[in-house]
Design a protein that fits this description.
Elements: H1 17-30, H2 32-39, H3 43-62, H4 73-103
Helix pairs in contact: 1-2, 1-3
Amino acid sequence: MSDQDNTTKKTRKRRPAEAMAQLVLEAEKIGASKVCQREGIAPAQLSRWKQKFLQGGVQGLKELKRGKKKVDPRIAELERETERLKEALLETSIELQAMKKNDR
């Protein structure tokens, strides 16, 4: 490879929620395609920002995060316990119905 190859890799840019909101509002005024070209973002990305902005304003954009959402370990444990108890209740209910049929 020579030094003359100018293949530059796009880098991701993390924008603050206020900047995303500004771009969404600007896109409404001058057009999404112009804003996307100027900022180097995909139209689908701008559309997601717009959707979040309409749902929750700037706060909705602040909640936009990549990757898995973090779950409180305590809540996860309570959800597992709830599932276990539901299964136990279902099993007990089935056994009770079977006992009632045998008594008839």
